[in-house]
Amino acid sequence: MSSLDRRRFLAASAALSGFAMTGFDVAAQAQAPRRGGTLRVSVDQAAAKLNPLLTRVNPEYLISELLYSALTRLKVDMSVEPDLAESWSSSADLLEWTFNLRKGVTFHDGSAFTAADVVATFEAILDAKTASPARQNVGPIAKVTAKDDATVVFTLSAPFADLPVTLAYTNAKIVPAAVIKAGLGRLDREAIGTGPFKLVSFEPERLIVVARNDAYYDKARPYLDRIDVVVYPDISAESSALIAGDTDLISTAQPTEYGRLAKATGVKGLRVPSGQFCNVNFGCDTKPFNDVRVRQALALTIDRTAMVDFVTEGYGTPGNDTPLNAAYRFYSEQALKKPDIAKAKALLAEAGHPNGLEATLIASDRPSLRTQMAVALREMAKPAGFRINVETMPHATYLDQVWKKGSFYVGFYNMQATADAIFALLYTSNAAWNETRWNNAAFDKVVNEARATVDEGKRRQLYAEAQKLMHAEVPSIIPTFFDLLAARREWVQGYELHPRGAVFRLDHVSLGANAPKRA
Amino acid sequence: MIELLRRVLRSPQGALGLVLVGLILLVVILGPWIAPYNPESLAPLQRYKPPSAQFWLGTDQYGRDILSRLLHGARATVVLAVFATALGTLAGALIGTISAFLGGRSDEAIMRTVDAVMSIPSLLLALLIVNLLGKSSLNALLAIAIAFTPGMARVTRSVALAVRKQDYVNAAIARGESAGFIVWREMLPNVVAPIIVEMTIRVAFAVMLFATLSFLGLGAQPPASEWGLMVAEARRFMHLSPWMILWPSLAVAFVAIGFNLLGDGLRDALNPRT
Amino acid sequence: MSPAYILKRIVLVGYTLLVVSLIVFAITQILPADAAVMMLGENATAEALAALRAQMGLDAPIWAQYGHWLAGVLRGDFGVSMRTGQQVGPVMIEALGRSLLLALFSIVLMLMLALPLGIIAAVRRGRIADLVVSVISYIGVSLPEFVTATLVVLVLADWLQWLPATGYVPLTENLLQGLRHLVLPVLTISVILIAHVSRMVRSELVDVLHTDYIRAARLKGLPGRTVLYKHALRNALLPTITIVALDIGYLLGGVIVVEEIFALPGIGRQLIVAIQSRDLPSIQAGALIMAATYAVASFLADIAYARLDRRIQYD
């Protein structure tokens, strides 16, 4: 359909469905989001897992966010807002948190949402048998109890200031207690949540359709009647579809495609600085990387500005071997490391490798920028005497055989909501995924102290100390951060690209009057 | 040998095939020496260059010279394909000849099993095997060899059956020679000519299969300049520079055409039709 | 064609599938990966692993696992996907349907082009037309699918923007869009088939045209066209049928690459996804269904050949 035809067609259909706009005058329409319509959003890989406690990749998060709610919700500035919890408070020692729940909320199957569902959900999350990623990411929860139908109390094993933020974790979605009792397997095929949309159909490799939940607790939202989540495993096809107007929104655009997208007419490129990064992990307990000088030497071979070009096509910022950058609240700036081959060579010699050393760097094949970075690193490190062999492998094999076990491989991580979340995920000695085995007592101490501190200035100081330690000791090389990229048609309104990478908030999206009507 | 060469040269396919394969061999042998640049070194300021006097075929996402990468990659691409074919042929020839020699029920059983294995598409079989062995060029070689074995066994058997009826085999059986001796010394040498023809054509197929495995990420590993891998990597950058994907694609096709032509030329030379 | 022959062929199809099932099961069982680890991925805990292993019967001896799996397959139960938790059988069968559609279109296109090309080349043997056809077919058989696919996408989808580069729309959902999405994959698969079959038709036809039978017909004064179409072509097509049947095996292999490139959710793509994510039940089902398809196709080709053969002999 040409754009002219489409406009004429829309004018006719708008006249027919005029009742949808009753009460709005033209001026008000410009501010108030228009209701109705179908949004077609594309994702770049299959959403295989539907069970919200087990989702692992961004497209799955996107879908579970539509179907389920959590207690709290992450806003674009990384602070939290109420979701199923209306308000919360903590004891002075930060060991006990009380959450007051929203009343009158129902699940998609019509059953009422109560504190019992929250308790059952967190018990399932904390049960190792469920194998939910949330288990290690929701904070030091010792016990969850229902004080009454609308009040839940979290008892912690250690003081923790960030609990309301960690409860917004992508996997901490509330599911009905009855379903948990009968077996979570049911949620592999259907969705029974309290989210703004209900599941209509689920073809994980191709198309997932959700429709507006009329019983959603917020009467204003969602604005859309329906969302089609379309899977495009081929990134170039995904871009072509948006440019052709077959889709309305690309949830994650690749750097190699972004230029083409941003230039296309009727398309708007979206870009936001983020703490998402690609890193090179060392097994700090394994030769030769247990010698800090070897790690420092490799870090000194990298031209970080060039690396930003190679890995992100310029849509990124150089990293400084700490997982925090300007996108985090507690980022503290340090001098950017510059390549210094002579010093790298000297360090290597000091560490007992005067003739350089050989190592195999493993990179999973998804996403392909892992390999992209590995190959660039290999060449940059060559002059200093590092002979690096790059080995790629399917992501599944990597997860099974290398991840958390290997001593030299490429990692890739989303930005987390807080500094504590990323440190406790990867770098403290009791980290959920302590892949570097750095086990630095001084670092653990400042991070632990920071999580039990409410005072902003004091926390900032502690986190600065933690970043300084990582900068100096290089448990992993973090050469680049990615800007998150996406693209939308101009008629898509209210979409804000979230720097977390795993949060989408599509219930805030609406379609402009010139959007094509989709069947 | 000279006579055979002359006959191959007489047919247009054979002559052209011989020239193309000759060229390919030259590149395989001399490639690394005639390459103008280092195929692996990075050039941050020379990324995505179109063909020019400085870079004849342009540069890739790291600013590496594509021509140099193709010249270096010829070895990985062609030599491995030839080895894989040879290995598969050898195994297939052995099975086929033994089956023909044994005859009767054993022959029936072996051949039915070979047929069964052949009903798994060779690409799928190769994919499964590479996954089993782990991905690397060497394992891709083995996978292709195994995938080729049943087909070669079938071809060899039909040739060997004809040979088995020959007098000299019967004579050897009458002399009471061991089975191994008969298969190895009397039968195999006589089935060699038609097998070589089949093999040459299969090299073309092996080049394609090997490149396909690399394309699917299961063959050569970066930063190798194996051509299939080059195509696979270039796909992501198609909209930044189409040259990156064009050249290695054409190179793979070029090699396959060369071996196909030579194979046909050899076939005509060995058994002229009319 | 006796019933005994058909029965024998059916038994052979059964034997083929048994061998294939053994191979596929063996390969997937010794894959260097713990199925339970694969399934739980990043969040595998010792407790979760143990529970899952018991649930999947991974602690039983291997022959028992094979027996259990085979019994399931015979009942049409291929197990549950490790990746999605869905029943593998229906997913694979649905995917096979899409692949067969792709194959069907490709074979039709191939017959429409390969026969005329082959006939022209044979009749005009040694002339320009023959040369052109043979150059085209040499190039055709030498282009791996991923190269052809790349070229057609670059030219037809990116530069000319006539067709969508990849993706899939069910024909039932939107016929026009569905067909548009099928054009490039069909084109890609057909190239090698057309090249191969037109060469076959040419060489068979050239042989037949030189037989005494055809010479005699010519001498009798029959018009050239009649000789060509009524006598020569029929005899030349026979071996071609066998080739087409053999090409189905090739076609199925090609489908894997083409579906991967064009993101067409057929059985080939399912298999690649399954292999990449080590989803064992899906690999087993996909490989077995593919082999079964091939075995059945070549069985049908055999039967067709036998029928045609008799008719021609007594013609």
Automatic annotation (TrEMBL), chain A:
GO MF entry, a single one: peptide transmembrane transporter activity
CDD domains linked: PBP2_NikA_DppA_OppA_like_17
The name this protein goes by in its record: ABC transporter substrate-binding protein
Compartments where found: Periplasm
Lineage of the organism: Bacteria, Pseudomonadati, Pseudomonadota, Alphaproteobacteria, Hyphomicrobiales
Source species: Bosea vaviloviae
GO biological process: peptide transport
Pfam families: SBP_bac_5 (PF00496)
Limits of the Solute-binding protein family domain: 80-421
Family per similarity comment: Belongs to the bacterial solute-binding protein 5 family.
Protein origin, superkingdom: Bacteria
Keywords from the UniProt entry: Signal, Transport
TrEMBL record, chain B:
Pfam families named in the record: BPD_transp_1, OppC_N
Organism: Bosea vaviloviae
Superkingdom, taxonomy of origin: Bacteria
The protein, known as: Peptide ABC transporter permease
Domain ABC transmembrane type-1 residue range list: 74-263
Matches recorded under InterPro entries: BP-dependent_transpt_permease (IPR050366), MetI-like (IPR000515), MetI-like_sf (IPR035906), OppC_N (IPR025966)
Family: Belongs to the binding-protein-dependent transport system permease family.
Coiled coil listed as a keyword: no
PANTHER family: OLIGOPEPTIDE TRANSPORT SYSTEM PERMEASE PROTEIN APPC, PEPTIDE ABC TRANSPORTER PERMEASE PROTEIN
Sequence intervals crossing the membrane: 15-35, 78-102, 114-134, 140-156, 203-220, 240-263
Membrane topology per record: Multi-pass membrane protein
Compartments, as annotated in UniProt: Cell membrane
Single GO BP term: transmembrane transport
GO cellular component: plasma membrane
Record keywords, A-Z: Cell membrane, Membrane, Transmembrane, Transmembrane helix, Transport
Automatic annotation (TrEMBL), chain C:
GO-annotated biological processes: transmembrane transport
Transmembrane domains' residue ranges: 12-31, 100-123, 135-157, 177-195, 236-263, 283-305
Keyword Membrane listed: yes
Gene3D superfamilies found in the cross-reference section: MetI-like (1.10.3720.10)
Topology versus the membrane: Multi-pass membrane protein
Keywords in alphabetical order: Cell membrane, Membrane, Transmembrane, Transmembrane helix, Transport
Species of origin: Bosea vaviloviae
Record protein name field: ABC transporter
Pfam families: BPD_transp_1, BPD_transp_1_N
Domain (ABC transmembrane type-1): residue spans on this chain: 96-301
Principal location listed in the UniProt entry: membrane
GO cellular component: plasma membrane
PROSITE patterns: ABC_TM1 (PS50928)
UniProt record similarity statement: Belongs to the binding-protein-dependent transport system permease family.
Keyword flag Ribosomal protein: no
SUPFAM superfamilies found in the cross-reference section: MetI-like
Origin superkingdom: Bacteria
Subcellular location: Cell membrane
